[in-house]
Every structure is written in structure tokens, then in C-alpha cells.
Amino acid sequence: MRDFIIDNLKKEIADFKKEIKAEKIGHVLEVGDGIARISGISEASSQEMLEIETSAGIVKAIAFNLEEDTVGAIVLGDYLKIKEGDIVKPTGRVLSVRVGQELVGRVINPLGEPIDGKGPIFKDNSSATYYPVERVAPSVVMRESVNTPLHTGIKAIDSMIPIGRGQRELIIGDRQVGKTSIAIDTIINQGRDSRHSTPICIYVAIGQKESKVAKIVSTLQEFGAMDYTIVISAPASIPATLWYLAPYSATAIGEYFMYQGKDALLIYDDLSKHAWAYRELSLLLRRPPGREAYPGDIFYLHSRLLERAAKLSSKYGGGSLTALPLIETQLGDVSAYIPTNVISITDGQIYLEPELFYQGVRPAVNVGLSVSRVGSSAQTKAMKKVAGRLRLELAQFRELAAFAQFASDLDEATKKRIERGKILTELLKQKELDPLPFEKQVILIYAGTNGYFDSVAPDQIAVISEKFLDYMEKMHEEAVLEKIKESGELAVETEEKLKSAIADFLKINI
Amino acid sequence: MKYTVKQYAQALMEALEENESAQRNKILKSFLLLLRRNNDWSKLDSIIKQVEKKYLRKIGKKKVLIEFVGALSVKIKERIKDILGTNILLVEKENPKILAGLKIFIEDEILIDASARTRLDCLFND
Predict the structure, then answer these.
(1) Which of the residues of A are catalytic?
(2) What 8-state DSSP symbol labels residue A121?
(3) Whose C-alpha in A383, A406, A494, B59 is 20 to 30 A from the C-alpha of A23?
(4) Do B97 and A55 touch (CB under 8 A)?
């Protein structure tokens, strides 16, 4: 250690004369709430990194507001260290984060610094790669249509709201309805989906409690998901400037893997708090407030972020960046400003309804209001085959169930549809942290939509389906499950075997 | 109407130039009262800096502030003057925080940093 310092010092002393240069500087005029107003750096460009020399060392900032006489900057460190008159040096660079495979399995802050107590991330400084935090999204020629599925392991989503690699699918709902659970289940399932390569998962916690982030990390570790996951934490205790920065840093890291030809999955938990942080910064910078006091460019804030999710064409490596932003609604109001903005930016939304959650339908996905605009083209053929009827049957069930409340006498066909709807609803219920491989989802939904479980009482569906999966795994794994998994299709031959397997199972169990 | 620092500085400069030296104290008093009335007292420091800058520019001089540790030798002063020319207003300031070496500020806009403190900061931050 000592040798290293002395060697460096010797080198520095040898180069001492060469490195003295004249620099343009500015001065801090005022500082407060994570914002600094700086004079004298009229040539600074927007988003340029600034270094503020304080008595306690250098504090970094980003030039945000370029005004006539001053520059408004957002402070990335402890703004309490900054004093009026401190020297500010423009760096001529935009903010970048260091990227690399070494980040996988680590918990970092929005500046890319480790916060998990495991020491430095990068051991070798010789081939450092930096990606700018703000970057223009891939152009039209670089992209191709979404064509590979990203299985969440959640029956209701994989069957009716399929997500493709490179898609942007919003998860929206009130507080405490299971938005984060869906995101965590999706991450866990990526390690189990052997049909496709495991994407690098990046979970961004914006304004979350540190205890919640710690719990998520320990859950991911418990399920072995940290082997392919990076957690970026901008907890509630750090300034809003870093909340604002967190999703952009995470996207830069995701882009690194995408441009390497790999798949990456980004989860922004959540963008409502990100919008709050940007509103706070904008108001402190005295930008004019608009609707709900958000600044005029709040749409651009999220559109430029989510546009960076893409599926690259094979010419550009064929990598993908899938984005799952989360939005928290207030009392189910999806027509508020930020929810409508993000709904219009994304390629679909998974709407979680509190009423369903309290009725015990978990995950509380409202399949009527949820949609995936591009995912169906990426859906595995086997799933497409069995799930086509599922959506229709559930839609009919919802309509009839509402009508049946007022009708005393129902015909046999209607009664059957309502019963089938109840069974399918039960079949789609799933425990937390228990994602199901897609081949198992296929056989379960096949059995449900083809009426094999019609004679089972709805409250017994959970038990029966568990037994059924156990039976199939033990007795027909190679003949049915492996075939579906390998080919991704439900061929006629496999379907026949599945039919006879279900019949055998029902003979024993019902 | 809100006035910028530059506008205040320009107006003050012109008012001082247009009047005899006997009137200048009265003008300065009025200017301070105006600042207070316009709730712009916080801009006073910046205005003074601007006026100083404009005045020096007008008389063809540049303000050069040198920060150093201990006494600055005459030899070094002469060398600085040789390099920067004679048209400078040299201001000296002792700053032990820079540990060793010099920091030269030209018109508060350009910094030539030859301090040991900065070198050490760079060494340990890189």
C-alpha cells in the first residue's frame, strides 16, 4: 500500500510542472435544498458536470438551468458542505457512470458507487468503460420488432398480457397492491427460464425505504437472483437530485449490456416518486409550474427515459433492454397527470386493482384494463394456443357475473360460463415469490380452458392444480413438459399425451 | 421592475462618472437606498464585484489575486508581473489551506492552480 502511494507521489511530482493549466472558473452565489446558483461559468453547457471546491473537498454538480447571468446546478453530493463564494470548475464532460460485468450482484447508488459494503466494484482501472447517464435512444434503423418473450412466471401476465424483450410495460396500481411483488417475481423467474438466455436484471429503487430495499436484496439473494441482478438504490434519505438521476444511471448500465448483445431487464420502482423529485428540483430552480405543479417538460422526462428501452437488430448485436416502470396511483385514479403520461409512452400496462386484491385475487391484475400492445408477437406458440380462449372466457365471465347479481333465474349455458369463469379466476391466483415455468402454465391453462377442472369446486382449484403439476412433473415430464419447453409449441402429438395425462390424473383425484 | 446585477452595475458606473467627486457620496447613498427599496440588498456583493471589474477594465487593468502560504517573496512577485504584464492590480491573500504552492485568480474568471492541496486531492480522487 505504502509503495503504491509513494510511487504515485513520485509520478505526480515528476509531472507536476506539466499539469498546471489555466481554467475558467465560477463562484457559488447561493445554495440550498440540493440546488446551487453559480455565476461566472457562462460557457458551461446543459447537463455538464461541475466540480465545486469546498473546504471539505470536491462536491459534484450538474448544470441544469442556463440563465442570463447565472447557472442553476443540481448538487450530487452533500450540499451542506458548499458555501457562498466557493470555486466552481466546469469539467467539459457530461455525467457518466462506469459500467461493466463487475456490477452484477452489487448494490450501488445512482453515481455507480457501491453501497453494499463489499468493497470496490472494479479492481482493474486499465480498461474502464463509462456510459453517459443521458443518451439519445437507439434510432429506428437500429431497432427491430419485439420477437422474444420475457416470461414473468405469473400466469395471468404470461397468458394474457405477454411481455417481449425490448418492450416497455407499465405496472400501475395503488399502494400495497403487489406492484413490487410482480417485479421481484419477474426477476426471480429469469433465472429459472432455461429456454432463453437470462437477462441482466436491474432493479432501481427510487425514494424507497432503505429497509424495503434491504428486504428486496435479501429476497433476491435467497432465491439466487442476485447472480444476475444489479440493485440501484436512491433511498428516501438521500437528496431528490439523486432520485432524479437513478433511473438514468440504471438505463446507462442496461444499455451497456444491450450494446454487448445481451438482454437486460430494467425495473423502475417507481416513476411517480421520480416525477416528484423532478418537480421538486424544477420548483427550486424556479421553473414555471404547470398542471399539478409539475414543470412543462415532465412528459419528456419519462419519454426520453423509456425510449431507451429497445430491441436491437442483429446488425447491432441483437441485444435488448426491457423496461418495467412502476407507477403508484392515488385511490385508483389512473387519469391523473403522471399515470396518463406513462400509459401513453409505454407499450401497454398491467393494472392492479385494490378491490381484486382485497377479494383475494392475487396478483390483483385487472385483465380488462390491462393490455400488452406488442408482446403478443413475442408470445410462445404453446401459450398463444391455450391462452386465446382464456381472455375471452374471462371477459364473458365478468360481464355475466355483473348481470347475474340482478337476475334470479339463469339458463344453463350462462351458469356454466359463470362457473368456468370462477374456476379460471382461481386458477390464475398465484402466491408471492412463486413464479411458474411457462410449460407448467401452459398445461394448467389448457386444463382450465378445456373444462377439465369444471367438476372441481372453485375453492379446491389451488390444491388440485398443485397436485396436477406435481403429477405431471413426476409422471409426464419428458413426454409433455420437456417437449413444450424445448419446442415452445403444443404439437398435436403432445396435446394428445397431455389430454390422456389429464384424464388419468382426474380418475385418481376426483 | 426587477433589475439584474449587470444593469445596476452599469447604472451606478455611469452615474458616478457623470458627476463630480463631491456628488459621489450622495449618489452612493441614493444607490444603497434604491437597493433596499427594491428588495435587492442581497445583490450588493455581486454589484460591487461587477463595478470593480468594469472600472478596472476601463482603466486597462486586470485584478490578479494570488493565494499563497507564508510570505510571498519579491522575486516571485516580480516573476508574476513579468508574465502577466504591468497592467495588473495585484492582490495578495494568505491561505494556509492550500498547503504549499500558489493559486492565481485572474479577474475572478480564470484560475491557475499550482497548489499542493489540489495536487493531493487529484492524487487521491483518481
Answers:
(1) 373
(2) S
(3) B59
(4) yes
pLDDT tens, residue by residue, A329-355: 999 999 999 999 999 999 999 999 999
Cell numbers 434519505: residue? A237
User: Which one-letter amino acid corresponds to residue A436?
Assistant: L
- Spans of all domains in chain B: 5-58, 61-125
Closest CA–CA distance from residue A308 to any residue of chain B (Å): 30
Question: What contacts A180, CB < 8 A, 6 or more positions away?
Answer: A216, A269, A326
Whole-model pTM: value is 0.88
Residue A453 CA: distances (Å) to CA of A93, A133, A149: 63, 52, 28
Q: Which three cell numbers stand for residue A274?
A: 421520480
* Preceding omega of B121 cis (within 30 degrees of 0): no
Residues in B touching A25 (Cβ below 8 Å)? 105, 108-111
Residue B112 has its nearest CB partner, among A22, A40, A87, at A22
Find cell 432465491 and name the residue: A223
pLDDT digits (tens, 9 = 90+) for A289-320: 999 999 999 999 999 999 999 999 999 999 99
In A328-460, where does DSSP find H-type helix? 337-345, 354-359, 381-404, 412-428, 438-449
Using DSSP's 3-state secondary structure scheme, residue A327 falls into: strand
Whether A8 sits inside 8 A of B123 (CB atoms) is yes
| A69·B109 Cβ contact <8 A | no
Alpha-carbon span B109 to A87, nearest angstrom:
10
CB contact under 8 A, B123 and A9: yes
